[in-house]
Structure formats: C-alpha cells, structure tokens
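Sample intake sheet
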Amino acid sequence: MTEIMIKQDYIDYFKNTIKGAGKERELLKAYLNEQIDKLEQLTATISQKNFWEIFPEILGVDARLALLVELLLFDDFTNTEIIQMIENDYKSYFKELCGYDLKTKTKPSMIFTII
C-alpha cells in the first residue's frame, strides 16, 4: 500500500494510476481532473467555520477517486458506465469498505457522512 504523506503524493497516486489506462480512457482522465479540481477548491476553502459542510464533500471526492481506481481494472465497462457507477455508489463506499451491509445502520462517524 502506498503511504500518502502530502497532498501532491495523493494526487500523483491517482494521476499515475490512470496514466497507463490508455487513450480509450480519456473521459475518465477528464473525470479525474474534475475531481482533483473540486478537491483543490474544497481544501482551499475549508475552515473551522465551514468544516462540517466541506469535510463530507472532501470525503465524497475521496470515495469517487478510490472507486475510479478500482473500476479501471474492469475492461468490460465503458467510461460512461464507470462514471455512472461511481456517481451511484460513492456515498456508500466507506460503509462497504468498513464491512457494513448497505441496509445496516452505522454508528455515528464523519466517515459515513458523505456529500
């Protein structure tokens, strides 16, 4: 597992992962760049006053990026299908990652509050 210590390492991880995906994945590269731009905007505006509004959006971007990397492995999905799956599933990503069934009520945690 790659240890992420700074923001640039985090961004580079995703860019390097998608770099080898080939020309047919250009739409996904554009989607990645949109998410990175959104992350840049969110992290530039987060403060003590708006933390509770911004942090769930940051978690949403993180979940989208993680799903993008996971779904890149499946050649049988089109770019559009991958983006649709990401947008449908990102809010439950951390819930499933933590081993919860989608129907299971989670304990109160910021990690499950995703926008």
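Comment: Residues 56 and 110 are 7 Å apart (CA to CA). DSSP finds five helices and no strands in the chain.
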